[in-house]
Design goal:
The structure holds two protein chains of two kinds.
Chain A lengths: L4 E3 L2 E4 L5 E6 L6 E8 L3 E9 L14 E5 L5 E5 L8 E8 L11 E2 L3 E5 L1
Parallel strand pairs in A: 2-10
Antiparallel strand pairs in A: 1-3, 3-7, 4-5, 4-8, 6-7, 8-9, 8-10
Chain B lengths: L2 E3 L4 E5 L4 E3 L2 E3 L5 E8 L6 E7 L6 E3 L2 E6 L4 E6 L8 E9 L8 E3 L3 E6 L1
Classes of the chains: A mainly beta, B mainly beta.
C-alpha cells in the first residue's frame, strides 16, 4: 500500500511569511508524528497525534509552530512568521497505534525541505 | 533522561568489507524499544529493525545483523559484504514506553556510511 506522503517536497519562503506543510499518513494508521531534522539539532520530535486525543505538543519549539489533524487523517504543520532558524527538513511519520501507549514502529514520509531566506 | 549516542560520525569502506555501526543508549527505564533507520540520499527514513528491551536475541536479516547487549546498553548494527547501495545515513533510536514520553523517538546523531566501489 501507499506510504506516508508529504507536500510540498521543497518550500522556499521569505523570512516573516507563514508556511503550511501537509502530511498524509498510511491508511488506517491512527497515530501521526512530526519531527524536524536540521544540521545543528539532528532529528527532533515536534508533536504527536493519537486518534481523537489531545495532541502532545511538548516538542514544538515556539508558539509560532502549530499543527492540526483533520478527521483523524491528514495533518498540517503551520509555521507563522518564519525565521531563518526554521530552515530544516520536516518529517512526518505514522504508526498503527490504537491507544495512548504508542510504542508501535513509526513509518516516515519523504519530508519537506523548508528554506527560509 | 533518554539519550542515544552514535559515536561514529562518518565511516568509509570499500565494497565487500564488513562494517559495524555503534549505538549506545541511556535510559533509566526497564521497558523500552530500540530501532535502526536508514536514510538514503533521497531523504526518506526507512525502518530496518525494532527490538524490545526484554528480547536480547541477536538478529540476522540477509547481510544485516544486530547485536543487542543490555549489559553495555548497546545495539550495534553490522553490514556484511557491504555494497555501494548501502551508502546512507544510519540512525539508531530509542522509544520509551511510559510516562509522558509516549510516541517520542529519541534519535542518535546518525552515522554517514560511504561504500566505495
Amino acid at each position: 500500500g501507499a506510504g506516508v506522503s508529504q507536500s510540498p517536497s521543497n518550500k522556499v519562503t521569505e523570512k516573516g511569511k507563514d508556511v503550511e506543510l501537509r502530511c498524509d499518513p498510511i491508511s488506517g494508521h491512527t497515530a501521526l508524528y512530526w519531527y524536524r531534522q536540521s544540521l545543528g539539532q539532528g532529528l527532533e520530535f515536534l508533536i504527536y497525534f493519537q486518534g481523537n486525543s489531545a495532541p502532545d505538543k511538548s516538542g514544538l519549539p515556539s508558539d509560532r509552530f502549530s499543527a492540526e489533524r483533520t478527521g483523524g487523517s491528514v495533518s498540517t504543520l503551520t509555521i507563522q512568521r518564519t525565521q531563518q532558524e526554521d530552515s530544516a527538513v520536516y518529517l512526518c511519520a505514522s504508526s498503527p497505534s490504537r491507544d495512548s501507549t504508542s510504542t508501535d514502529t513509526q513509518y516516515f514520509g519523504p519530508g519537506t525541505r523548508l528554506t527560509v531566506l | 533522561a533518554q539519550k542515544v549516542t552514535q559515536a561514529q560520525t562518518e565511516i568509509s569502506v570499500v565494497e565487500k568489507e564488513d562494517v559495524t555501526l555503534d549505538c549506545v543508549y541511556e535510559t533509566r527505564d526497564t521497558t523500552y524499544y530500540l530501532f535502526w533507520y536508514k536514510q538514503p540520499p533521497s531523504g526518506e527514513l526507512v525502518f530496518l529493525i525494532r527490538r524490545n528491551s526484554f528480547d536480547e536475541q541477536n538478529e540476522i536479516s540477509g547481510r544485516y545483523s544486530w547485536n543487542f547487549q543490555k549489559s553495555t546498553s548497546s545495539f550495534n548494527f553490522t553490514i556484511t559484504a557491504s555494497q555501494v547501495v548501502d551508502s546512507a545515513v544510519y540512525f539508531c533510536a530509542l522509544l520509551f514506553a511510559g510516562g509522558t514520553s509516549y510516541g517520542k523517538l529519541t534519535f542518535g546523531q546518525g552515522t554517514i556510511l560511504t561504500v566505495h566501489p
